[in-house]
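To assess whether ligand presence alters the predicted conformation, the chain was also submitted together with zinc ion. Input:
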Amino acid sequence: MSDTAPLILGIESSCDETGVALVQSHGGPVPRLLSHALYSQIEMHQAYGGVVPELASRDHIRRVLPLTSQVMQEAGKTLKDIDVVAYTRGPGLAGALLVGAGVACALGAALGKPVLGVHHLEGHLLSPFLSADPPEFPFVALLVSGGHTQLMRVDGVGRYEILGETIDDAAGEAFDKSAKLMGLGYPGGPALARLAEQGDGAAFKLPRPLLHSGNLDFSFAGLKTAVLTQAQKISAVRAEPVEAWPVNVLADLAASTQAAIVEVLVKKSLVALEQTGMKRLVVAGGVGANRLLRAQLNAQCQKLKARVHYPELHLCTDNGAMIAMAAAMRLQAG
Ligand code: KG4
Ligand code: ZN
């Protein structure tokens, strides 16, 4: 290490966002974010209605080095100052991951510095430590991304125990797939959530899968089918396809879908707190940006005198800062 405050470069390229960031361990309990830069490929994939893996890989190649220069410049550092290069090891799109891994390994070899592969979900899990109000260990974590829905007991860095997880689709997938069949395009989750703000969450009765299962597992595949069936019923009654519905009907279905997903996530999170006896909940992953989820968790946890921690809104979805932070915390924990 070049000095007592190791500098970590983090590279995220698992899906449709290229993220690069610099984090410095400075002796305090939580490493400090010096700079971060993000390029979202959303516009490029929008024309196809979803992520095209080959285009994603090629775009990561285009963006990763300019973003690296940008974060170095913003932090007033040069490549020689870097002590560790961290990158997202997986899970994610194979070609996209290879770009980040290849660049990280090449940089590490050229600089003679160690390279650290970080699990993408550990990045999300530790991302609330980047916020102005970082949590303290231990805590219960609700990890809700596009591909994963898990409740975890977290006793420290690397000390994770899965308490429950989805047996089929993730919560993010339920948002995305429901949005798609409502014609809301990609990325579906944020679009559905925006539309839901104008709708009535009680307008349509949708199932709350495994709500009373007695365990902490989730299942969202049936909900998507129920949304499809409900959409078909509405279309039959109105004698028009979903594209022709007035916006208030679409908003009501969006709000009802969101209400069903959020109710299950909130209920299970509270059960996890109760079962572990913990008073601290950490929410991470893209769905953690959902406003209804945040409002309901805040209200319910306040009643239980429990604290809830979230990543900053702009760091809920994929970014390089969470990868650099997870690497820094791992190094700090030895
Ligand atoms: O964590 P993330 O960026 O990527 C993965 O690691 O998967 O999460 C992306 C997921 C997508 O399913 C997206 O629709 C969902 O997070 N998402 C949201 C919101 N913002 C992003 N879902 C509901 N409400 C939002 N505001
Ligand atoms: Zn992610």
